[in-house]
Design a protein that fits this description.
Mean pLDDT: 86
Largest sheet: none
Shape: globular
Helix content: 55-70%
Order of helices and strands: HHH
Radius of gyration: 11 Å
Length: 52
């Protein structure tokens, strides 16, 4: 989950690094596990980091 919060690592790279063969499958499973899309998670993660 840490890699997804790093803005210079693409979501495609995160998907491949976590064992998914494509972005679509990664997005589907990420949404199921977290309740938000990878992009939304990344956005909210960045906001939390900025306010610390």
């Amino acid at each position: 989950m840490r890699a997804i919060a790093v803005p210079h690592i693409s979501l495609h790279e995160v998907a491949l690094a976590t064992g998914f063969c494509d972005d679509r499958t990664f997005r589907k499973h990420f949404l199921r596990w977290t309740g938000v899309t990878p992009r939304a998670y990344r956005s909210s993660s960045g906001e939390k980091t900025r306010h610390r």
